[in-house]
Automatic annotation (TrEMBL):
The keyword Manganese does not apply. Coiled coil: none annotated. Belongs to the EXO70 family. It comes from Zea mays (Maize). This is Exocyst subunit Exo70 family protein. InterPro entries: Cullin_repeat-like_dom_sf, Exo70, Exo70_C. One of its GO terms (molecular function) is phosphatidylinositol-4,5-bisphosphate binding. Residues 19-32 have a biased composition (Basic and acidic residues). Residues 70-83 have a biased composition (Gly residues). The gene is LOC103650663. Pfam families: Exo70_C. One of its GO terms (cellular component) is exocyst.
Amino acid sequence: MDSRSQAPYKSSSFSPATTRDEGGGRTREVDRNFSLGALRDKRDLPYGGSREQSISEEDEQEGGGDHGAARGGGEGPGSVGGGCCGEPDLAALSAEVDAFLAGQDEGTPVSVTEATLDRFASAVELLVASSEGAEEKWAVEAAAGEPPALLAAVTRIAALASALGKSPEGGGKHAAAVSRVTAVLHRAMAFVEEEFHALLEGPRVPRAGGEHEPDRCVLAPPDAAGRDEPAPPYPPETVDRLRAMADAMVAAGYVTECSQIFLVTRRNAFDAALRGLGYDKPNVDDVARMAWEALEAVIVTWTKAFRHAINVGLSTEHDLCARVFAGRHAAVGRGIFADLSRCVMLHMLSFTEAVATTKRAAEKLFKVLDMYEAVRDASPVIDAFLSADEPAGEHGRHTGLADLKSEVAAARSRLGESAAAIFRELESSIRADAGKQPVPGGAVHPLTRYVMNYLKYACEYNSTLEQVFREHHHGGDDGSDNPFAAQLMEVMELLHGNLEANSRLYKDPSLSNIFLMNNGRYMLQKIRGSAETNAMLGEAWARKQSTNLRQYHKNYQRDAWSRVLGLLRDDGVLTVKGHVQKPVLKERFKQFNAAMDEIHRTQGAWVVSDEQLQSELRVSIAAVVVPAYRSFLGRFAQHFSAGRQTEKYVKLSAEDLETIIDELFDGNATSMPRKKT
C-alpha cells in the first residue's frame, strides 16, 4: 500500500471541527453556514504569535549549537539529517523527505531526524506565510506543467505526515517533531481551503457603499438571441489552478472539505444564475393560494429556468467537475456533480408537485403541458449523465443522479396526470352546460367559441397530449391509434349534442336552424383554419359537418319561406274558370305583405356573423322568392285599379323584396321599407 495514501488526523477549516494550538490553548471555530461566508484571513498559530515570529524563533534555536546538535543527534549509516544553520533550505529538505518517503514505499526504510522534520515543517510554514497576498502563488510551473511550489510542498508534508503515522519514526523521541509536522499540515490545508474557496468565488470587486463582497462566478444566462451558449464559468488558467489545489487537498485526505467547498460554492452560483433568469424559488406553500394570473407568470419563468438548468447549467457544471477533478480523482468530481445536480433540481421539481395539486381548471392546461414537456425533455439529459458517470466498476457508487432520474420520472407522471385530468374537465364543463335561455339572434354560442379555440391550442400540443393520454388513459381500450384524437372526437360529439339541445330552446324552428348553422359553420372554419386540428379530426369529420350544414340550410328555407312561396302560387283558388277571384287576390297580397313585414322585422334581428354564410343565405332566398314574386306581380297586379287600390295591396316591388332580403341577418330589427317609385 502507498504510504502516502493514509491521511493523518486532521482538523478542517470547513468540516465541523476545531483547531487547537499545541499548548492546549485557543480553539478556532469556523463559520460553516450554507453560504460559506468569508473564512478568516488569519489563523491561530501552533505556538502563538505570527508565522514569521514563530519561524524566526525556531531558526534562532536551531542555530544554537547545543540545541541543534541535540535535535540532529543519532545520525548514522542510512540516515538523513537536516542542516543546522540559517534559514531552512526547502529544496534540500524536500529531497531528504522524498528519500524517506521512497524508502517507505520500497520497503527499505530510511531514517529521518527530528531536526529534519522540524526544519521541513518550518520551511513549509514559511512558504505558506510568504504566499499570503502573493498574486502568482498558484501559477503552474512552466516545466512540464508541474504544480505550484506551494502545492508541491503541501502535498509533500501531507505524504510525510501520513507516512510518519505508520512508521516507527513517528513515535518516541520524534513525537514532538511529528506533532509539529501535523500542525503545520493543518495550517497549510486551512490556507489552501481558503484559497480554493476564494478562487471558486471569483475576484473581489468594490460594491456600492465601499463594501467588498465576492463577485460570485455564476453561469451566464442565454444571450439576447436565445442561444444557450454561456461562456465557461472560469478561464482555463483558473481551472488549472483549481485542479492543482483540488489534487493537493484530496491527496492530503481533505476530500470531504474540498468536495463541500466546491459543492456549496457552485450551488450558490447555480442558484444565482437561475435568479438572473427571474426564477426566485417560490414557496410551494404559497402556490395553492396564488391567483392564476400570478401563478401563470411563475410557471413561465420556471419553465425557462428549468430548461436552462437542464440544457446549460448541468452541462456546464459537469464539464467543470470533470476538469477540476481529473485523472485519479475523477470519481470525486462525479460524486460532487451528482450531489449538485440532485440538490439544485429537487427544489425545482417540487414546484411541479405544487402546481399539479392546485385546483384543476381548463385554462391551466397549456402551462402544465409546458412544464410536462420541460421535465420530459430532461430525462434523456439525465440518462446521458448517468451513462457518462458510471465507468466500469463504479455502478451504484453515486446514487444522486439515479435519485434525480427517479424524481424526474415522478414529476413527469404528476404533470401528465394533471394535464389529462384538466382536459377531461373540459368534457365535464360541456356536459354541465345545460342552458335555459337561448342565445339571442341564433348567434354562435359562447361555449362553442371557447371550446373550439381551446381545442385549437390543445392541438398545437398534439404529440405531447398523445403521450399524456397514452400514459394516463383511464378508460377502456377504444382501439384508437391515437388516444388524444379519440378524446378530441369525444369532445366534438359532446359539443354537437349540447348545441342540438340548445337549438330546441328556440320557439321558431327557423331560428333553431340559423343557430345550428352559425355554430356548425364556426366549428368547421376553426378546424379547417388549423392544420393540427384538421389533421387530428380528419377529413371524414369535416365532410360530415358540411353535410349537416347543408341540411340545416334546407330546413331553414323550408320552415321560413315555404308559407311565403305558397302565397305566391295559383293553387286553383285565385282563378276559377279563367276568372280571377279579386277578393281572394286582395287577401293574398295582404297576407304576403304581412308575412314579409314579419320576416323583415324578426329575421333582420337574427345574427349571422360569418359574411360568407350570410351571403349564401341571402342569395339562396332571393333566388327562390324574388322570381316567384316577379311572376306573381306580372300575372295579378294588373287586376287592381291604378292609383290608390294598387298602392293599398301591391306594397312591394321586386326590387323592394330584394332590399328586404339583403337586410336579413344583420342583427337590426327595422320596419319594412316603402315601395320604391
